[in-house]
Amino acid sequence: MVDLNSLVHDIAAEMAAREERGTVASYIPELAGVDPAGFGIAVVGADGDTHVAGDGDTLFSIQSVSKVFTLTLALGKVGDALWQRVGREPSGNPFNSIVQLEYEKGIPRNPFINAGAIAVADAILAGHTPKVALGEILRFLHFVSDDESIHIDSAVARSEQATGFRNAALANYLRACGNLRNPVDLVLGVYFHHCAIAMSCRQLAMAGRYLAFGGRHPTAGGKVISSERAKRINALMLTCGHYDGSGDFAFRVGIPAKSGVGGGILAVVPGKASIAVWSPGLDAQGNSVLGSAALELVSRRMNWSIFGD
Amino acid sequence: MVDLNSLVHDIAAEMAAREERGTVASYIPELAGVDPAGFGIAVVGADGDTHVAGDGDTLFSIQSVSKVFTLTLALGKVGDALWQRVGREPSGNPFNSIVQLEYEKGIPRNPFINAGAIAVADAILAGHTPKVALGEILRFLHFVSDDESIHIDSAVARSEQATGFRNAALANYLRACGNLRNPVDLVLGVYFHHCAIAMSCRQLAMAGRYLAFGGRHPTAGGKVISSERAKRINALMLTCGHYDGSGDFAFRVGIPAKSGVGGGILAVVPGKASIAVWSPGLDAQGNSVLGSAALELVSRRMNWSIFGD
Amino acid sequence: MVDLNSLVHDIAAEMAAREERGTVASYIPELAGVDPAGFGIAVVGADGDTHVAGDGDTLFSIQSVSKVFTLTLALGKVGDALWQRVGREPSGNPFNSIVQLEYEKGIPRNPFINAGAIAVADAILAGHTPKVALGEILRFLHFVSDDESIHIDSAVARSEQATGFRNAALANYLRACGNLRNPVDLVLGVYFHHCAIAMSCRQLAMAGRYLAFGGRHPTAGGKVISSERAKRINALMLTCGHYDGSGDFAFRVGIPAKSGVGGGILAVVPGKASIAVWSPGLDAQGNSVLGSAALELVSRRMNWSIFGD
Amino acid sequence: MVDLNSLVHDIAAEMAAREERGTVASYIPELAGVDPAGFGIAVVGADGDTHVAGDGDTLFSIQSVSKVFTLTLALGKVGDALWQRVGREPSGNPFNSIVQLEYEKGIPRNPFINAGAIAVADAILAGHTPKVALGEILRFLHFVSDDESIHIDSAVARSEQATGFRNAALANYLRACGNLRNPVDLVLGVYFHHCAIAMSCRQLAMAGRYLAFGGRHPTAGGKVISSERAKRINALMLTCGHYDGSGDFAFRVGIPAKSGVGGGILAVVPGKASIAVWSPGLDAQGNSVLGSAALELVSRRMNWSIFGD
Asked: Are B188 and B206 part of one and the same domain?
């Protein structure tokens, strides 16, 4: 087994040489303009040391990776009652979520598909203003990452909001089914803004430590969440974290992880490491091509699959 | 942490006291007639010792649990080419598989849904007679379980065949899409018969050792399959092993496992144990109520979730 | 064959005696409060005489019947180019339209399902204000019915708008697919208001004359639309006019007709009569129970089925 | 209005000059080998005279057009009880019927989609042998067409049977849902054979007379079916007769008609004519390109739309 520092630098070098890099998301100009050559990686090991390579300090739009943190927050607020509004099953739906929503009468299959994350945002909003809810989300991220510089990229949020008609359809549909309690516009405001949070791999790997290490906060001490809840969020990342490529990612990489269309992936090796990778080129399922490839290498070289040695 | 022998006896005692036991499968008389009071458990630990309690030596129809073994065999025969015919994604479909099959043009989403397992049976059949194919499946089971008494319950197989029109629909549909190479009747013959294999928890836990212990055969020595393949099969069990309750099982139990409508579940704790439980009462998703409950207790008491301590 | 005056009074009497009346729409208070005992009928024959019975002069919310008139207007504005944005096939979908919309990439199957009518409203809006568009719709109705008193029930429109999240979902989805050119809110404003038009059976039967009589305006003279277009709108009413009960209505009644959840139905017997019936109790498909029954009697007694004598 | 004899010859001449002819069905060699240049037309008017042009005496495989006759027969046998097993709504499903069948629990939406016609064949079989059932179907055709030479093309039937896995899937699914009472193989035998009946346009137009003329047999005298039933079958042809192109055909042509993938169409103008056209090239929905075009011309020139003058 290699040491983590060599690992991240080797992988960054190998990824730099890859030619197949996928396609950068193009639905808003802020994402479309990102340089496809970027690749970053950061690993925080069990000893708390952080190893960063490539563009591991470059900020990117975390997009759906934010859903891991809003889920954590919503569970803290409403507990298991959340599961009456959102399921825990993979969506398994190549033709996407609004169909599922109609069949299952407004209950999104899991908190990581867009409809589910919108319901989660509604649970966080809970009658407050979007500003209060977003402040809470950011404070949570500052706390778990030990980094108060993390912020929302407001240009991204604006673009999301200006073009997010499909998400508006989902939110209105949830509301029609009685599964949204706050005004549609306010919930969407929270959702679009938390997806627009900008982070680096270093920050993201730091933020994921509580999931990798039994719910504990490695530096502040004490628990962010119970170890039971950490395990469950990890299970959801494994089964639902990569859209309709979740099964394949589990098969190839074998590590709980959540991806976003900004090209970032947060991966959690229980007891061993919190890992963040980033590269903006995506595959057909919307997952980072080099990010997935890098995590597959990490899994093999460190023998970190949760499915066996 | 408790010792395994106490564990299995404690759990068998607790399960005997449970009142909520679900509903026994009723689509064929051989299953409908099974006593709902039954519960068995067997655990083979890393030291090779087997711990059995309750009705752990009672034979039951393994049904879909057999798909783990036919998948292993088919991968041995055709390798990764199998994945051109079968996907690796959770089906995520409450209204079942023939819909998915049509949308995805005859490619079953994974090898554990019926359509996928029928395609796997076709890969094993490969131009031979059903008798030859079934002989091969049984010999594989005898080998991995160190038990030559394992056999097919022919009354179950006959009943399955006489009533299996939905599976016949799936097989014909696969054939219409060019994803079945042998005659429909022969493939269904193999499928119905391997689902009708009768095993006890003890035999099933023995048979699962190669998946728990890196592909190795603990007693014969050597490898049944590579450790890489064992991990991948475990990943498939985790994401797809409990029909449309797979996400929930991962969330609550956190151990790769495959269930069958006979009430059996094979669970694999990488590096630590191969576990079989059985109780015929099923929940709405077709998974054993007491079997799932028992595995949840095992996961908690032994701290065996793959998603963290 | 009976004379029309006896016909309408006989039928009104028979409907008054019926006990099975269906269920009044309850999604907004203005509809929920309508007296289920109501039944009205009006027939305008080829000679231009109008025969009215029962509550044939009571105003009701025409709801989806308005889609016949907005379709006529939109075809007048954009011609057959409309068919690039909306299909002409029955929806045949018991689980409703948003599913279809996703499968067919934002092209509603026909102009009478909600999604299709929203696209039609968008074609009428065409950059103007909702007020201008609604003025145009009302002027058209005043013209074809020879009745300037027809107006929008603004209480109904407000209630529709306050609870119309499912339609907002459809509109946003259309916009996401590029099949809505005006702002979602403005299009919905037009849609909700034209559905809230209040008319009596007498007014509605008058308004339908142009469809019954080859596109001609019986009193003003000249053509409202070409006879070709009138035939085509009639064909759409026959195949798509009763939601997922269209086939059954064609089978039982055999007359082109468009129903609305307010309990009104406009029926067109080519060359013979324009008929309006109203009774607020609906069947499971959302069509007026007594309205359908009355039209079935009209069809039989007058031998007015378009499918034979 | 032109006389019928000029009409059929004019149209045959115009169709011969058309270049866009669609694609001949290719799923069995017997259909794939048909000359795409073929076009035939036959019209039987109210006076009983028959007008034939082009290849109007060439035999072709009537395929789904046969479903009109089996429906008539099944209604004669079981009456309206048939409608408990088969619906009367357009399928409206571009992705085909097995999906619908699953959603609606084994009740085909109408008797003209494959699943519905298989259920109809089951109602005709009714415990007899396929030979008896097929004899009954042929005798019915001989009677209504006054032509005892009509027969089954056994080469076509054999090919259908050898490749009809999708229909076998449907039949097995119906059986799984309890909507098939005879053995799957026997029902499919009847179905494949009645689809393989060979007829000319002349024979087909003769066979359709009872539907055009109020259920009467023009030469034998008396009723084949009641006029009520004739109207209802015509309504079903209008709403469901052209697969997922039924709405469009009603819109463009406005005449009840049933098409088949052999390129034949039977069209019924109530009180005026029974028409058969044939040309093997199909459009994307599986309907004859020239056949539809010819009927559109007939409708316009004769003013025969049922939706107005």
From this structure: no
Last residue of a domain, one of C169, C195, C221: C195
| Least confident stretch, B99-113, C131-145, C278-292 | B99-113
Q: Of A255, A259, A277, A279, nearest to A268 (Cα)?
A: A255
For residues B64 and B113, give the distance between their C-alpha atoms in angstroms, rounded to a whole number. Answer: 9
Please choose, from the candidates B230, B271, B257, B266, the residue with its C-alpha nearest in 3D space to the C-alpha of residue B46: B271
C65-100 pLDDT, tens digit each: 999 999 999 999 999 999 999 999 998 664 346 777
Residue at which a domain ends, from A180, A195, A210: A195
Residue C308 lies in a domain: no
Catalytic residue check, D191: yes
Identify the pLDDT of residue C95.
39
Write down the catalytic residue from D66, D243, D272, D298: D243
Provide the pLDDT for residue D93. Answer: 63
Please check whether residues D143 and D230 belong to one and the same domain: no
Q: Is C103 on the interface with A (CB under 8 A)?
A: yes
- Average pLDDT in the B273-285 region? 97
Cα C292 from Cα D3, distance rounded (Å): 39
Residue B308 inside a domain? The answer is no
Residue C222 burial by Cβ neighbours in a 10 Å radius (0-12, 13-18, 19+)? exposed
Active-site residue (options: D8, D68, D191, D289): D191
Q: Which residues of D touch B99 (CB under 8 A)?
A: 98-99, 102-103
* One-letter amino acid for residue A265 of the chain: I
pLDDT tens, position by position, A15-34: 999 999 999 999 999 999 99
Q: Does A283 touch chain B (CB under 8 A)?
A: no
> Is A227 labeled as catalytic in the residue annotation?
no
Q: Using pLDDT thresholds of 50, 70 and 90, give the confidence band for residue D1.
A: low
ipTM value of the model? 0.96
- Give the per-residue pLDDT at D179: 97
Per-residue tokens: D132: 């008896």
Is residue C119 domain-resident? yes
pLDDT band, residue A1 (cuts 50/70/90): low
Position D92 scores a pLDDT of 67
pLDDT tens readout for residues D218-237: 999 899 999 999 999 999 99
C147 shares a domain with C95: yes
Report yes or no: B97 and D99 within 8 Å, Cβ to Cβ: no
Q: How close A131 comes to chain B (CA, Å)?
A: 32
pLDDT at site A92? 66
Confirm whether C309 is domain-assigned: no
| Residues C260 and C171 grouped into a single domain | no
Q: Tell me: do D181 and D82 sit in the same domain.
A: yes
What is the domain-level CATH number for residue B170? 3.40.710.10
Active-site residue flag, A27:
no
Tokens at residue D15, please?
């169709």
| A28 and A111 together in one domain | no
- Rounded to whole angstroms, how far apart are CA atoms B299 and B256? 11
Residue B95 scores a pLDDT above 50 = no
Is the CB of A238 less than 8 angstroms away from the CB of B236?
no
Tokens standing for residue D271: 């009180």
| D170-191 confidence digits (pLDDT tens) | 999 999 999 999 999 999 999 9
My answer on whether A129 and A115 are in the same domain is yes
Q: Which helix (H) or strand (E) holds A259?
A: strand A257-259
Residue of higher predicted confidence among C309 and B150: B150
Mean pLDDT of B71-92: 94
- Residue A289 labeled ligand binder: no
B86 shares contact with chain A (CB less than 8 Å): no
The answer to whether B307 contacts A305, with C-beta atoms less than 8 Å apart, is: no
Place of tokens 């529709």: C160
Q: Which domain holds residue A121?
A: 64-195
D2's CB contacts (< 8 A; 6+ apart) are D10, D301, D302
Active site residue D190: no
If asked whether residues A70 and A175 sit together in one domain, one would say: yes
Note if D173 is an active site residue: no
Who among B99, B171, B176 is closest to D102 (CB)? B99
Residue B93 labelled as part of a binding site: no
Distance from CA of C169 to the nearest CA of A (A): 4
Query: Number of structural domains, chain D?
Result: 2
